[in-house]
Structure formats: structure tokens, C-alpha cells
Amino acid sequence: MKIGVVQPLEINSAISLTENALKNGAELVLLPEKWIKNIDEVPLSEFQKLAKKYTAYIIPGAFEDGVSVIAPIIDDNGNLKGIAKKIHLFNEEKLRLFPGNEAIMFTYRGIKFGISICYDVDFPELIRELFLRGVEILLVPSKVKKIGLEIWRDFLRIRTLENRIAVVNSNAYSPPDFPGGSIAIVPEQTSSGIVIPKVVGELGSEENYMIVDIDPLSYVYLRGDRLKEFVKFTVKEL
Question: Per CATH, is 2-229 categorized as 3.60.110.10?
Fold first, then answer.
């Protein structure tokens, strides 16, 4: 699956970079969290036209709608398939917004995708539940500051290792505070048998896009082994 990751600075570049990714073979395109302030400013109709024109899915980012933080999912017919809501609100978001209470997954071209919005990645039980439901690629729109970028990437790498799934992240680019640095990671087994989080795509601090080609069959045996190892348990207090 060829996945486009877009780091826009404003509306025009978001549309043009998304179309460039689609022209160059992207079958699904992911944009960051809050790359624009409000969902009312998001050119959803333009993204819908592009999705239909190129027969591709587009997740145009995650945005506040006055109630929650939502990520629209546009399908390959240009229709709004659904929305994912941020379950774990961050800092002052808790004072203004309501959290979601459902993890969202969907199947596209035979691949199971999950969506996790920014701070949701900090909570491993959410990603584990998606993994147990069969998710093979996790899509993560985020808006992470420069000071926290390396720690953020640690979370992404660890979720890849814990669950043996690919993680594709689009991080907001809005200098000087938000550096972009979007990244895509897959689990890979080395010749020594150790599984590592392999970076297969990375953007710098710039308006740009990338296309990563991720084949879940390349790590399906790793997912299978991890599923066999997962054991349900209870906690007993002594």
C-alpha cells in the first residue's frame, strides 16, 4: 500500500501537496492534526474531489469542531466514510472539549487501518486493542512541538514494537514551535532474530510530502507470533 504523508503550512499547499502525492501513486493520504485552526476552514469538498478523482482514501488531518477533536475519513468515492475522535484530550483541550469513546478502524484494499490522534498514542492499551482487532497499519495525525519530538518518536517506535504493526505519522509543520518531522515505521526482523522499528520514510522541517510503500505481508508472521504470545490476565492484590 502506497501511503502519502503531507506536511502543509496552509490550505493551498495542503491541496497541492495532496494532489502531488496522489499523482505519484499514493492510494491513501494522511495530513497532520490541527494544521489549520478549525474544521470550518478545512477544504473538505476539495479533498473529497481529489479522493474521487484518484480513487484514494484521504484523512485530511484532525481538527477541533467545537465539541471534540475529529479526523474525517474520506473514502475512494469521495464520500465521508466516518470520523475518528480523539479519546485522550491533551492539557487545555480537556477544559473545552469532550473526548471520544470509540477507537476507529476500517478496511481498505484488504488492509486493516486504525486511527489514533496524537496524544492517544501515549496510551498503549488503545493501540493494543486495535492490534487485537486485526489492525495492520496505524495512522497517526499529530501536532507535537519541537521540544517533544524525540520523545514522541519513541512512543511511535515502541507502539510498532509492542504490536508488530506499521505506524504512519503526519506531524504538523508550523515553525518555529512545530517542526514537522513526520515519520513512517515498520517492524522488521534482523538476521539475528531481533525485531526492530525500521524507519521507511521521514520528512524534515519543511512543507513537503512523501510516499511510503508498506506491505503488511512483510511482517504478517511477526504479528501472528505476537498474537500467540498475548495472554489475558487479572491483577490480584495481596
Answer: yes
